[in-house]
């Protein structure tokens, strides 16, 4: 090696060492809801991490959630490698874990051939959250539910059953008197589905519990039972879809092999045994092609009290919203089919879209809840449930 080459090599080593000193970046995926594979440093300010599901087979919904911080303020590139899956969710960022915004699309480079997405992230001494959707742990949802129960004298939060890991599974109860008609809400069987499963659901529920004339009248006639997070184990483990046994809960409503689905079935059976009548059920989800509602197939729809068609007609005639309806076979082992097949209660799967504007999701929840209450009250006033 010539002296000139030796000097160049020494300078390079010096630059690299200085860069490494400047470049102390820390990733943390050890909290509830987090998920990120091992992070590898690929060069100055360049990192790679694997994003992998806990269980397979699984539908393509790669969930990632972590915090990142560094000693000094600078910019890094993080490549998320999805293996055989494709990038799906626009990254959401937050400095406090409560207020979120989508990462600007110019800072996300998706490679559909290489199955990866490279994020450009500003990092610094302040910890920043990065996640596929807003992070909502079981503690977050159940804290919200506790608040809701405190706000209303006829509400309470009860442990309805346990999960696979032995964690409590809660139901939010609103009972003004018994026996009477009731409706059931089930939320977030699928952990990443925060838009509909958490944001849409909460807005819907809060509208049912609001102080509008319609809501107050509704609660005089209907009790409300809501499971605000049916899959807390999956949510806290950062699972893409499953519970802690690797089961997709929304395919378990015929087999009832899991404690989470058994909890809902047993609870509803108990309410019916008390002499109450179930009149409607909703199951809250999120899809890349939402918003829409899954409704009963047309063969079964003719046998019903037509709550769903009237509800949709009301939404479309009183607002500018158009309701996209999709029909599914009543044979599928989905939650909403269980409510119809077992109790002949009309039911829907309520889907928001992955990247729908969050205020629009909340507004949709308010409108759909209000119009559902109107239709159920009308049926109740005409005694149509008892024909
Ligand atoms: Zn879902």
Commentary on this structure:
The structure is a single chain. The chain has 387 residues and is an alpha/beta fold. The chain has two domains: 3-131, Immunoglobulin-like (Sandwich); 138-386, Zn peptidases (Aminopeptidase, 3-Layer(aba) Sandwich). Helices cover 33% and strands 27% of the residues. The protein has helices spanning 3-22, 138-151, 194-208, 213-221, 232-237, 259-273, 298-301, 307-318, 335-343, 358-381, and strands at residues 25-28, 39-43, 46-50, 65-70, 74-81, 92-94, 101-102, 108-111, 116-123, 128-131, 155-162, 168-174, 181-187, 222-227, 277-287, 292-295, 325-327, 346-353. Strand 11 and strand 12 (168-174) form a beta hairpin. Helix 4 crosses helix 10. The longest helix is centred in the C-terminal third of the chain and has 24 residues, at 358-381. The protein is elongated and about 70 Å long. The termini are far apart. The site of zinc ion has 4 residues, from loops.
User: So, the CATH homologous superfamily of the largest domain?
Assistant: Zn peptidases
Overall strand count: 18
Please identify, by name, the CATH architecture of the largest domain: 3-Layer(aba) Sandwich
Coarse morphology: elongated
Structural class: alpha/beta
Query: What strand order characterises the main sheet?
Result: 11-12-14-13-15-18-16-17
CATH top level of the largest domain is Alpha Beta
GO molecular function: metallocarboxypeptidase activity; zinc ion binding
Keywords: Carboxypeptidase, Hydrolase, Protease
Domain Peptidase M14: 134-387
InterPro entries: Cytosolic_carboxypeptidase, Peptidase_M14
